[in-house]
Amino acid sequence: MEPSDGESGRGARVAVLIGAAIVLVSLCSCVAAVAAVVTWGDDVYRRLVHDRGETVALGQAGRDGAFEFTVSRIDCGIAQIGDSFVNQTAIGQYCLAELTVRNVGKRPAIFEDALQRAYSPDGARYAADSAAGILANSEHQLFQNQINPGNRVTGVVVYDIPQDRHIAELELHESEDSAGLRVTL
């Protein structure tokens, strides 16, 4: 027995609805995957990087790429940076990480404060405050400085963190793609 025209039309509509449902589910899955990467991607990336990167304590030298970093101290609780004419006030408190960077590679490399991260004990990540860093390094040549092989520069990386927090770890990078050096405080 052959299907009537009404039955074949209904079958085509069902097939189209099933196909549309499959496309809709696929699209929602892609959106969910992108949202997951955006939400948790940095944490996953950080765990992968930490599995490969070196860890040192405050005052110890450690290497990432062509740079050897030594963090000599961290001072927090600073409300303002600069002088009486040009200054900047912290939103929370400034924490200053004093460090030495030596190029142990074979070609010039540029130090960028934007690549240097700080973490609180609960894992909150803080970016460097470049404007405050320029004021804090008025007598140093650390930022955006091309460091030739064998040369060493000293300066301060500045972080503006909440008043009730402190820095437990720094993650220092020679480049955006490097594994990173962890400095535990």
TrEMBL record:
<feature type="domain" description="DUF4352">
    <location>
        <begin position="57"/>
        <end position="175"/>
    </location>
</feature>
<keyword id="KW-0732">Signal</keyword>
<protein>
    <submittedName>
        <fullName>DUF4352 domain-containing protein</fullName>
    </submittedName>
</protein>
<dbReference type="InterPro" id="IPR029051">
    <property type="entry name" value="DUF4352"/>
</dbReference>
<dbReference type="Pfam" id="PF11611">
    <property type="entry name" value="DUF4352"/>
</dbReference>
<keyword id="KW-0472">Membrane</keyword>
<feature type="transmembrane region" description="Helical">
    <location>
        <begin position="12"/>
        <end position="38"/>
    </location>
</feature>
<keyword id="KW-1133">Transmembrane helix</keyword>
<keyword id="KW-0812">Transmembrane</keyword>
<dbReference type="InterPro" id="IPR029050">
    <property type="entry name" value="Immunoprotect_excell_Ig-like"/>
</dbReference>
